[in-house]
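Our consortium's second objective concerns turning raw sequence data into structural hypotheses that experimental partners can test. To show how far this objective has progressed, the report includes one record in full. It was chosen at random from the queue rather than selected for favorable results. The single chain below, 298 residues long, was entered without modification.
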Amino acid sequence: MRSHRAFTLIELLVVIAIIAILAAILFPVFAQAKAAAKKSAALSSVKQIGTGWQMYAADYDDMAVCVSSGGPGNSAYRTDFWVVMQPYVKNVDLFFSSERTETGCYYHNEPERTGTPYGLAIYNLNPKGRCLGYGYNWGPQIYAGGGVLDKEQSFPGGGSYQPGRSLTSFSEPANLFVFGDTYDTPRPTIGMYPNSAGGKAWILDTFPVTASTRQSSFRWGGRFNMSYADGHAKNVQYRGGLTTGVGYVYVPAAEKDRTAYCANPSEMLDGSKFGLGSIACQDFVNIPFTTTTTWSPS
């Protein structure tokens, strides 16, 4: 007679234990691999955006894309860099990050969205109101200049704009940010300082920071993807915290990466909002951290 041998209970339990151990080992590896893939895709996106920005400048007398809050009576529509750059990128999804899931960011008020061709075109590009994942380098403290845009200027009768600068005017294109990861809205920037003393850095606009915030809670653990004026891209380690007399700041950890906010490091900027008066951009981005409560890495 043939004997039929089945697994014993002990053998089954051993197999189940082995599978559980393998799962415990492999699942975190898979999660890390998935996160690394998403980070690489984001770096590729910001590099492509930077390439589109260079192509735009080549067609417009070497001038960077400008931004505008519009003029009186809609005589000058708002200028959103991601809309202006569409002919050179041809993929609106490049401007949105998988790590930023907020909605409601239409970038224009209701009358402008529904009452002007430009506003309607922008709405049609983003009907769900997704928030852009990448910001533009307006300088370390936006509206004051210093980055790839000049200082804010006024339209006659109301409204304002910031003209783009000539790419040939940059002192070190290989160390000048153009775009990078951000939480800013509605027209996103990568500004490292608040609008006024005691506030929160523009780059952290919608991020709920506190004195106990952890670096690990930021996108990519605080290693933000940045594109540069010469066309390359890389991820940059940021650090931040609460600085006395300034507010919550978020700046590159390395000094050389901080000066990447400056089109010309020796350019004088207005630091009066922080009691600094006229100050060189290279000094402005290096406000000492001796009075900063720095966020813990993890």
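The partners drew two points from this record. The first strand starts at residue 67 and ends at 70. The mean pLDDT is 86. Both points have been shared with the crystallography group to help prioritize constructs.
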